[in-house]
Design brief:
The complex is a heterodimer of chains A (248) and B (223). Chain A contains 10 helices and 10 strands. By secondary structure, chain A is an alpha/beta fold. In chain A, strands 6-7-8-3-9-10 form a 6-stranded mixed β-sheet, sandwiched between helices. In chain A, strands 2-1-4-5 form a 4-stranded antiparallel β-sheet. Chain B has 8 helices and no strands. The relative contact order of chain B is 0.15. The chains are: A alpha/beta (248), B mainly alpha (223). At the A-B interface, helix 3, strand 6, helix 4 and helix 6 of A face helix 5 and helix 6 of B.
């Protein structure tokens, strides 16, 4: 039992989420194992981004249970900030801090939360920038970067907190087509070094190539899940088939 | 004109000093009130937002001259005679500063609220997603960006408040307008006196605007 618990990074059971009278997530249950890459696909308005945002409580669940690394984050008494330190998030619109240069974007949380002293944080930040191929942009401000560069900085910023889990909310949707590749490369690298990842995306190529498991959502429900081969090769649910026919 | 300047110039200069002193006190406390009430109006607590809204609407709904009379005459009367506690005296400077601070503070609160709301919610979400508490995210990420957009409105409000000090001549504070009235009463040279007083306000406000522009330029990051 102890062993099994350790291997589950994210446990979601019967999650419900409503905005006023609009029920966005109806009954979501999902387990993500350590080191697993789960890709969530589905039409817009299907609730996939909301599901992702519930996983670090940017949205408060209306019902059900979410356990991250053994901590029940639907429990109001849990220290959500401590959980968030271990769960990185990458946003569609990058959300780099506009009032800081790249280096300070990366150093803010590690220094402010006293995980690292300034020198260590700076070293770590430069190392992460190197990893996303942007060592020369440490002093640049966000508005001086291209979309692809911004998103790679955003990934590096999340990595500076040494997270166990990374959440990606349509990380390439706001990018010019020629910049999608550079961001996906960084994400592929992360997947290969064993990062636990939950990715909401419209990049079917990425889902097929990197995903360990693909989840199809529609209308606030998980309609189908399986390996990329199963979902893309032989979808069972007619809605999945319909969706894939439209996007592929 | 020259007779006014040579005879009453010093008096008017001192009065301008009093005007600036009053404005300075008022603005200092207005900034504090504005910051507190402005932040109260963006927090998640409904009680906080309600209190902030009541304060802002109450102050904005009352003319400043009424507020000035109320604070200078009304509040001590309430304290000393109606409640019978006694011993409360307010100088014109104290009452005037409180009046300016409340009035300007309400408008500042609105400017600060709007400034905070103008920052993309993604900035707060990104900071929170890294584990920063709400307050730290506000101080490190949201407010620095909000203040930059707020500066023109804040300077505008400063200028309005500086000019509003003239209203406080009604409670007898010896600021510029009050003093000028006395000069006119003594000399009957109303054209010359008011022209000089107008020019004095203008110069101070132009200087303030110039300083604000310089500040705005310095706050542009990485341009």
């Amino acid at each position: 039992m102890e062993h099994r618990q350790k291997k589950v990074a994210i446990h979601v059971s019967h999650l419900k989420k409503s905005f006023k009278s609009l029920e966005v997530l109806k009954d979501i249950s999902l387990d993500v194992a350590e080191g697993e890459v789960v890709v969530i696909i589905g039409p817009s308005g299907s609730g996939k981004s909301t599901l992702l945002r519930c996983l670090n409580r940017l949205e408060e669940a209306s019902g059900g249970e979410i356990v991250i690394d053994g901590t029940d984050i639907t429990d109001r008494k849990c220290d959500i900030n401590k959980v968030r330190e271990r769960v990185g998030m990458v946003f569609q619109h990058f959300n780099l801090f506009n009032n800081m240069n790249v280096l300070r974007n990366l150093m803010l949380a590690p220094v402010d939360l006293k995980k690292q002293d300034r020198d260590t944080a700076r070293k770590k930040a430069l190392e992460m920038l190197g990893r996303v191929g942007l060592s020369d942009k440490a002093e640049a401000y966000p508005h001086q970067l291209s979309g692809g560069q911004k998103q790679r900085v955003a990934i590096a910023r999340a990595l500076c907190m040494m997270p166990d889990i990374m959440l990606f909310d349509e990380p390439t949707s706001a990018l010019d087509p020629e910049m999608v590749g550079e961001v996906l490369e960084v994400m592929k690298h992360l997947a290969h070094i064993g990062m636990t990842m939950v990715v909401v995306t419209h990049e079917m190529g990425f889902a097929r190539e990197v995903g360990d498991r693909v989840i199809f959502m529609d209308g606030g429900l998980i309609l189908e899940e399986g390996t990329p081969e199963e979902i893309f090769g032989n979808p069972q649910n007619p809605r999945t088939r319909d969706f894939l026919n439209k996007v592929l | 004109m020259t007779r006014i300047i040579t005879t009453y110039g010093q008096l008017l200069a001192v009065a301008m000093g009093q005007t600036l002193l009053l404005a300075l006190y008022g603005l200092f406390f207005a900034c504090i009130i504005g910051m507190i009430v402005g932040i109260m109006s963006v927090v998640s607590s409904r009680v906080c937002r309600f209190i902030a809204a009541v304060f802002v609407n109450l102050i904005r709904g009352v003319p400043m001259i009424v507020l000035a009379y109320f604070i200078f005459f009304g509040v001590p009367y309430l304290w000393n005679s109606i409640l019978g506690i006694g011993g409360m005296t307010l100088t014109a400077l104290q009452a005037g500063s409180i009046c300016l601070a409340l009035n300007c503070g309400a408008y500042m609160a609105e400017i600060i609220r709007a400034g905070i709301e103008s920052v993309d919610v993604g900035q707060m979400e990104a900071a929170r997603s890294l584990g920063l508490p709400w307050w730290r995210s506000m101080v490190r990420v949201v407010l620095p960006q909000a203040i930059r957009t707020m500066i023109p409105s804040i300077i505008n409000q400063f200028i309005i408040t500086l000019k509003d000090t003239s209203i406080l001549s009604v409670i007898g504070f010896p600021e510029l307008v009050n003093t000028a009235k006395n000069v006119v009463a003594a000399t009957f040279m109303s054209f010359q006196t008011w022209a000089i007083v107008g020019a004095m306000y203008l110069v101070v406000i132009l200087l303030l605007q110039w300083a604000a522009k310089a500040l705005e330029r310095r706050l542009k990051y990485g341009a």
